[in-house]
């Protein structure tokens, strides 16, 4: 995926201004910045929830700028949200089944008169749901109501729901919010396993710097809606502009 010159203005406020970066196959790219830097707005522009004021998004060598969210999902660009969309009364398995809607939807009449094709699709969806749950490490909670999961397990289930839509690029918006350091480390290990297995690449917005720096191949830093820096985790952590704007302290103090 290639983001080029992406911009969004709300009246006289430039929420995102001339952002450019790419997400290559096999990569995890971290998108970081202080609160209000424009990270979630950037996500909304890429996935079609907002129409950009300027700039383009290309995927699979096609210009997909401004495509509707459901169109993006069908192309394989799938995002999570900061607010949970878990159905607490359903089991882990039932939740992940609901995420297969795009693949499993059928005409109403086929529900009452299922054909061989419908039965094959249902079997495929159930197999897919079980595989996703196994990959993210929730197998022992397969039949557990989501209401009984820990915070860390709920975060993994949210990722599982996104994976059920069969993404090629998985976009995660603060997926580790509320996790302790141990849970965040385990969460990062799961993300690493997904690339090349269930997804081609991941773009992640996250405030947990330990997680971002441990899982990302590249990091893009936003500040006041603009791109401040880009590079490997090691390069970004040494960038004095980033140290001053985001990671804490002034460049002079860190030098």
From TrEMBL:
GO terms for molecular function: ATP binding; ATP hydrolysis activity. SUPFAM superfamilies: P-loop containing nucleoside triphosphate hydrolases (SSF52540). One of its GO terms (cellular component) is plasma membrane. It comes from Advenella kashmirensis W13003. The keyword Cell wall biogenesis/degradation does not apply. Coiled coil: none annotated. SMART domains: AAA. This is ABC transporter ATP-binding protein. Residues 1-249 form the ABC transporter domain. Pfam families: ABC_tran, BCA_ABC_TP_C. The keyword Glycosyltransferase does not apply. Keywords: ATP-binding, Cell membrane, Membrane, Nucleotide-binding, Transport.
């Amino acid at each position: 995926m290639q983001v080029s010159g992406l911009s969004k203005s709300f009246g006289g406020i430039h929420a995102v201004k001339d952002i450019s970066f790419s997400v290559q196959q096999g990569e995890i790219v971290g998108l970081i910045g202080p609160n209000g830097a424009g990270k979630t707005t950037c996500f909304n522009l890429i996935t079609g929830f907002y129409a950009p004021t300027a700039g383009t998004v290309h995927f699979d060598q096609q210009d997909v700028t401004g495509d509707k969210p459901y169109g993006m999902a069908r192309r394989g660009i799938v995002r999570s949200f900061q607010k949970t969309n878990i159905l607490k009364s359903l089991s882990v398995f039932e939740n992940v089944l609901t995420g297969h809607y795009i693949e499993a939807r059928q005409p109403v009449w086929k529900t009452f008169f299922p054909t061989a094709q419908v039965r094959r699709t249902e079997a495929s969806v159930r197999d897919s749901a079980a595989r996703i749950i196994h990959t993210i490490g929730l197998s022992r909670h397969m039949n557990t109501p989501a209401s009984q999961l820990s915070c860390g397990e709920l975060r993994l289930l949210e990722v599982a729901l996104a994976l059920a839509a069969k993404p090629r690029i998985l976009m995660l918006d603060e997926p580790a919010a509320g996790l302790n350091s141990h849970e965040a480390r385990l969460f990062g290990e799961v993300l690493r396993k997904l690339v090349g297995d269930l997804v081609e690449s991941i773009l992640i917005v996250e405030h947990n710097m330990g997680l971002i720096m441990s899982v990302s191949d590249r990091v893009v830093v936003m500040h006041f809606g603009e791109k401040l820096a880009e590079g490997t985790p090691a390069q970004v952590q040494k960038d004095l502009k980033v140290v001053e704007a985001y990671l804490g302290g002034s460049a002079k103090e860190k030098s």
